[in-house]
Amino acid sequence: MNDARQHTAPGTPATRGGEPPRTANVLVVEHEDGTGPGLFGERIAAHGFRLDLRRPWKGDELPDDLTGFDALLVLGGTPGPYDDATSPWLPHTRTLLRQATAADLPTFGICLGAELLTVACGGSVRHAEHPEVGPVTVTTTAAAGTDRLFAPLTVDAEHGTPAVQWHWEETESLPPGAVVLAGSEHCAVQAYRLGEHVWAVQFHPEVLTDAAREWASHDEGQLPPLGIDPAVLVAEVAAIEPRLRADWGALADRWAAVVTDRLAGAGTGD
């Protein structure tokens, strides 16, 4: 996956009054090697965002709180959301997610990040009866029609949208107030929102072919019991990569717009 640590790119719009725009500062939490922000990180960095990538698995410290950050992105990884003993940074990650939710700070949790958000905010996660690995169709709910990130995906709601999955856990009970935005055949909660600016997705909008190849190699012993041929899985992801880039890249752009709008409002007193 691409490393977007401390990365910004040109293109941030000017604020009202002609003042130079302040760069949005995004805290990104990575849980293990090879699980970086990928496509999602590329797209939000292209909006001029600064991605402060923390790797606690490698010794990076997480901040005490979210002071100075405009958004929070929590990535996926092998640990489960309750694996505090083997991944001792998880309790503090859950604390940061609770803080972000309480402040309605723009937040995006991916797979493990979504599971941590669920647990942090009063829901629960269980082992999935039908683990999903590889391309799976995600179908939006009626509530997605008014959601800022998922509404454009409702245009083809009947056929759904392909997404890369890689999970052995799933939501058992939602946090209070969660609005379900998408599901799949074997996983009822593929995406939900808390408040106005906090999103969680079970799938991987950041993953493209190269990452799928690396993960399939890493997990090659776990895939055949699921009836999955690793080589076929990688070929299937490669075949839909243009659509993955289009659909999930655009969703990342919409999340970036949420961050930018909230930052502009905070800067002008709106």
In words, what does this structure look like?
The chain is α/β, with parallel strands linked by helices and 270 residues long. It has a single domain (16-129, 139-157, 165-208, 249-268), classed as Rossmann fold, CATH 3.40.50. Helices cover 30% and strands 23% of the residues. A 9-stranded mixed beta sheet has the order 2-1-3-4-9-8-7-5-6. The N and C termini lie far apart (37 Å). Mean pLDDT is 91; it is low at 1-17.
Topology readout:
Layout: E1 25-29, H1 38-45, E2 50-54, E3 71-74, H2 90-103, E4 107-110, H3 112-120, E5 124-140, E6 161-173, E7 179-183, E8 191-194, E9 198-201, H4 209-218, H5 230-268
Parallel strand pairs: 1-2, 1-3, 3-4, 4-9
Antiparallel strand pairs: 5-6, 5-7, 7-8, 8-9
Helix pairs in contact: 1-5, 2-3, 4-5
